[in-house]
Amino acid sequence: MMATPSELQSAANDPPPGHVDSVEMPRPTVAPLLLSAGMALLAAGLATSLVFSYVGGALIVVALGTWISHLLPGRGHLHEPLVREAARAAPAAGLPGTVEQLTPGAPGYRLRLPERVHPISAGIKGGIAGGIVMPIPALAYGVLSGHGIWFPINLLAGMLLPGVGDMSLQGLEKFNGLLLGVAVVIHVVLSVILGLVYGVLLPTLPRIPKPLAWGGLLMPLLWTGVSYLVMRQINPLLQQGVDWPWFVVSQFIFGIVAALVVLRHPHWRPLTAGLAGGVVGGLLMPLPAELWSLATGHGFWYPINLLAGMAVPGLGKLPLGALEQFHGDWFAIAVGIHAGMSATFGLVYGLLLPRVRPIPAAVAWGGLLLPLLWTATSYGLMGVVNPLLQQRVDWPWFVVSQFVFGMVAAMVVLRSEMIHIPPAGRGPDSLAAFLEGT
Q: Residues 202, 203, 204, CA angle at the centre, nearest 5°?
């Protein structure tokens, strides 16, 4: 006799054998977070670039599929075992009259979280300090590349001035008073706004485990730096065909996936865990690059051929159509480069992780969150106002500048004082009572 669907669901929710003393809990899922991020990217793409909409749509599909799968019988709950009875706390005996009743204005009455925050001045100071240091890598790039110090400044002004995209390369390398003024305004406003955002968010951001913090920071820097320098020596012209913000996103995914593998297997040897993380991360890392290539109309083989350009000289002189077609030898070279770098960086990560110190949460978020916010904002605005000018920006150097900004702003905010948040009571002397209590 077959069981009914209700009987099957009831059996699925029953405690498993050996775990009778347990509590039924909702199964944790990242689907709501992915869905909200996908909807935000979908909306942002309508105002900036359709690429963001494509990524947002993909996230929405994955999130809905994951969320719906948790609604199936036996999938949405788990049984959390209780601690052994001897280790449980003894029942508390209530004694009436021993607990003072909270009154409006007293500490703890209608407590507001977070209890302590950084003052607004900390975010402003962090934004100003980061804004002062951030141009150094950009100006260094302008000098080292031979474009001069005015080149990155004029590119920054192109975020708002539509006519900058029509200027010649020689015009972008010269001093322009109007462009300098616009660039300074953009830089100051964004620095202060992002500094304020970070100062407000800092007390609410969770702690990042050491493998995730180093995976999100170390891997993108190592992989992007090596790829950028190697391609600059072998195929300087081909280097311009790489969409570096998407390239950095791919490396970020690699670092996070490698870190998750290490976190899920704490008993493995560091080199074994690092190698496994490198292999899994290498399998997932090409997804953003392929999505970008398909969304921009270059096709599936374009990013693969660009990767082969790290070892095959002369690809930068070929027409665009040749780079969008399948080539067996280039595919084999790209697979070899990708597999070798994935395994190598995974081993490096596993070797270095036990020797590095934990990164403070503020510094980790500063190095991860702010570069993504600033780079995405700049990339999207320039893609709308000056799509041609967007190709002249050396995005790896741009990301380095934002990384410097985020780290400096985080350190300034982290070293600032913390102020207490008074309770939400409406007593006449609530603030005075709160200050007396603290």
A: 90
* pLDDT, tens digit (0-9, with 9 covering 90-100), for 217-259: 777 777 777 877 787 778 776 667 777 777 777 888 888 888 8
195 and 326 fall within a common domain: yes
Contacts of 73 (CB under 8 A, 6+ apart): 5, 8, 9, 12
Q: Are residues 259 and 157 located together in one domain of the fold?
A: yes
Report if residue 278 sits inside a domain. yes
Domain residues for the domain of 31 are: 22-78
The pLDDT tens digits of the residues spanning 318-367 come to: 888 888 899 999 899 999 998 998 898 888 888 888 888 887 777 777 77
How many domains does the chain contain in total?
2
CB 311 within 8 A of CB 234: yes
**Closest by Cα among 89, 58, 100, 74 to 11:** 74
Residue 372 belongs to a domain: yes
DSSP letter for 74, please. Answer: T
What is the Rg, in whole angstroms, of the alpha carbon atoms belonging to the chain? 27
